[in-house]
Design a protein that fits this description.
1 helix; 17 strands
Length: 259
Amino acid sequence: MQKIITLLVLSLASLSAAAQSIFVKIGGGFASQYDAAGYSGSAKIAFGYEHELSQTFAFAPSIGVTARGWQVDDVSTPDMLFDDKGNATGLQRPVVDSEGNPVEGKYMYSMMHRSYAANYLQLDLPFNYYHRLGESRYLTLTAGPWVACGIAGNRSTEGDGRACGDRKIRYTDRTFSLPGAHRFDCGLKAGVGYQFPSSLTINVEGEFGLLKTNSITVFDAQGLPDAVNDPFAGRAGRNVGVMLTLSYRLNKSKWKGDD
């Protein structure tokens, strides 16, 4: 996968010399996974070019950074005790009565919440269709594949009763360093937009991942995914997101709006 991305990037660089329209794209929106518990904010910044294939079709590859994220279901974790040196005692914190005495057979639990951020170097390979609405105004339809490589991101954990000290409140880990994490992704994108009689195009784009972002690594005694101990809360998901993007053409002398 890494070799494929490298070859595509080199192809993009070589073709850009003959590009008909160079553009930059920025955008933001929401991202999640198909079966995730919640969504996160997302963003994109990219650089590309548009190569006209006919009066209505164009190929518009771009490369940039896309920030995605998702949230998983909250899970209950035992609130464990540690000594003054931060060593695990193996004992669970007991429930205490109004006088501070432990209640026999009752123990405390914490509700653990986890959210993920994953930033990718992404290569988009879409085709654009232009439907003329008037002088220098077009309805645009976009569709095509994309490939991506994870480069950064953090998992944020809150309320993990198994952790020591301040980590019971909150701690972070690198997303792509977690056991079972998959760095490479690919998928399909589709969108609709409007090209103004200027250098600006506004689009609403949806991106749909085809590869799982991780493998389940921990199972319980029944052979089921262990949502408490598995880094990804016992599930393997696929990325999905919706963005509002703005594309600005840098070489105004060559663009489809010049009727």
